[in-house]
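Q: What does the assembled structure look like for these inputs?
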Amino acid sequence: MTSPPSVRPGYWTVNLRYLAILLSIWFLVSFGCGILFADALNGFRLPGTGFKVGFWFAQQGSIYAFLVLIFVYVRLMNRLDREYGVEEE
Amino acid sequence: MNVQAWTFTLVAISFALYIGVAVWSRANTTRDFYVAGKGVPPLANGMATAADWMSAASFISMAGLIAFLGYDGSVYLMGWTGGYVLLALLLAPYLRKFGRYTVPDFVGDRYYSKTARVVAVVCAIFISFTYVAGQMRGVGIVFSRFLEVPIEWGVAIGMAIVFFYAVLGGMKGITYTQVAQYCVLIFAYMVPAIFLSILITGNAVPQLGLGGADLVSGEYLLDRLDGLHEQLGFAAYTDGSKSTLDVFAITAALMVGTAGLPHVIIRFYTVPRVRDARISAGWALLFIAILYTTAPAVAVFARTNLINTVSEQPYEAVPEWFTTWENTDLIAYEDHNGDGLIQFVGPDAVDGSGQAVQNELTIDRDIMVLANPEIAGLPAWVVGLVAAGGLAAALSTAAGLLLVVSSAISHDLLKGVFRPGISERGELVWARVSAAFAVVLAGYLGINPPGFVAQVVAFAFGLAAASFFPAIILGIFSRRMNREGAIAGMISGIAFTAAYIIYFNYVNPGANTPDNWFLGISPEGIGFVGMLINFAVSVTVSRFNPPPPEEVGRLVENIRVPKGSGPAHEVSA
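A:
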């Protein structure tokens, strides 16, 4: 086993904070808007379309949000890696 | 050219393409065979992951399921995409840094235990075999319907193709074939979807057409479908009939199960760097989302078309596709009231005078995507294209799964447990032998399906959710988690989930109703509860046992930091 590279403290904490924020949004768009609040949101429509909001989140919106979340995570982590000097060659 | 000639031509061209790619990219070392030499560019890995993941179930069955389930079908859409967020954020980068070949590798090393490794191997093999039997079945159905060969021959041809490129090419051959298969399957899915969207809504983008207005009535398509459903006595399309808790549990089980499936996880071992593992999860989800956001549109188009084509129409005048599918027993019509018309109605249907109306039409949900182009009267080449796409989806997933079985046998069991001193050449020979053995067994299961393939897939997700996911997450995020906790957690999670599913599906199928379920959670969603049990048991048991040895602590520290993962710098335990 190679010894772990030495890292300034804080890298892991910031990583965990990013995860907490992004996973809260993940939960909110899918389990929240798509399931738990779907009935309430179905009282509204996306303007100019036939989509009820809850139904749209469950069958379209949550998937778009998942995509955005992953690409945001990639950007945040690549920046964090550079800040702490742990990026790969 | 007629449908059969087009199908034959397109299928033959696509097969020739896969074989060409496989010959060009065959494997020379175990590293090539298991993880494609860790040299796959992230974009290509994303595409290969998408093809690997999207099986015959996604391509052939999902839109049909949604067409019949309406809002309740959302569990598949969210469940099978949301898992990628978990993969990208919680698993992929760390497992890539860990840098070995298989999922049992990680479980065995992190929990310094051969028992843990063997438990993981058994789960990996079971999950992969249940899955692969379904794929082979899908291959057989496509062949028998479109090329009119017996199912057995269809499965045998599919086996021969997979045998050729999985055994010869290993992960490297599979990866580049999957890239080609993704292109074939997404093209085949989108062409009819775009045609239908233009026909029905005048909008070329199916995702927008779904929210648009119907060209004939000018009403919003979803409102019109809700109206038709009400008229025919079905539940409203945009409302569900499952309980909220059950929808929640099924979605969660599918998400977590996705993130715990070994053939998906293993794909993130194939890229050169940790940052590539993160971004390739994003590319994978992008390529998957193209199909997954189109599927609900296809479902609504198909449902509307179906109702318009058959409802209250004389049976004597049904279109040709209806008769063709009747011959395969996947559509059945029984004239209960003897009026010669087709009554396609839901459980709450009543006629003008308030009398209950009986449904006379049964349609297998699996045929919706395959029959869709014919129902809509699209050209023959589109029908052939859909057949080639269905085969691409089934074969790419089958190959990925077979590789997991092969590496579990040759790498995890043979090298990891029974013969640690085996040479590189010997291991590669064994990897090929076990891949060949797995192909033959999968083909046998495809021809003689155990009769419960559908429930068994739910089983695979439940097991993955209740076994691997907590063990891997705790292995990365908790330094304190030890051997005893992880093994106890995996075993209790699996035992609970398996017992629940087996009880309701095989021991006492009569009791399989929401009233008897634990908190109203169906066997499909019980993996979520199994996962919670696994987490709780792992944490509790680990507190009463000594912490893991120091080198495991260093392993955990190491995988949390990207630096030092380069291809020239392999981590050795």
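The two ends of chain A are 20 Å apart (CA to CA).
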